Amino acid sequence: MMHLPTIIILSIILNTLIGSFLLSLYRLKKQKTYLYWCCSCFIFVLAQVTASLRAYSDLNLISHYLADLLIIIAPLAAILGIHAYNNTEKSKFTACIGVLLVSVIILMPFYSTSFAQLYTTLVIACSFCYAAYALNKLHVGRVSHFLLLQICFVIHALLMFCQAALLVSAPTSVIDTQQALAVILISHIVISTCTALVWPVLMFLESEQVLTDLANLDPLTGLLNRRAFLNLSATHLEQANSYQKELCALMIDIDFFKKVNDQFGHETGDEALKWVATKIQAQLREHDIVARIGGEEFAILLPNTSEKNAQALSERIRLAIKNQPFIYKQHSISLSLSIGVIKRTGDSNINDLLAKADKGLYQAKHNGRNQVVVAI
Hints:
By secondary structure, this protein is an alpha+beta fold.
């Protein structure tokens, strides 16, 4: 087994460095999530230092009572850091203070007993369970970079519950409880340090993802924006030209959308755009490319799709909107789409292809709207 004092010293050094790095990030970016995690690292360092005094001093008030409280505070600070990521830490601050005050009261008469260790272990385990839950709530509905951190929290919580079980069964246990507890303690220190190290890395990855989304996605609907659509479509079209594969493009416009904004307001109009985007996506295959390229205009690229199939898909999209009214704030609003369809011919480029699909769209509007027109 690894030498415990060596593990503790390495953990103190690493957590001090990580905490200093997070403090620098906070000063640079002014994001409170870094400050809370910085505090968590430094508090964990103090907890290890004070707990280590048990081997050299009889000051139980410091080496047991204060150490246990610091061990409890460290994950609470991390939890506040998680909530600070989306500015909801204030709503959880009172709860964290409450947990700390209850711990102050409960541990005071028992700080030098095994009960204090059991209580501290259970509070930490529950804190890590909640931290994993809080991370899951950060990005509902999308794959999150925080999955690795969730796994660390869950493993950490399981270790703490195992430690609690060993503490309860110690008087009657037939296994070497002290040896098992030592292994868990080392695991606790190692995972805590790894967790502190993982957080800034994941925050960087998440920030990069946010920047990528801002550059490529329409903020209202979550679809690709015009620039990203043109870049991605150009690549697919080049492949289709090279290998003479079928490919079609659609241009879609919501009929009389200005009336929706004028009659029901721009908030309702925005919700209608999101609803239409969702309905369109529901009809598409995984490899189809869809974007919002203007106010109420959408574009779709259909790789490996014949003109007949593209026309059939367009009809399904049109009917999905026409046959179900959009309902928002007790308003039932009937919407319809005009759609232009074009197939790839020769060595087309994406701008020419969309221009031809646009002609089909305007022909659909000229013919009375709420229809699909295949451009020639």
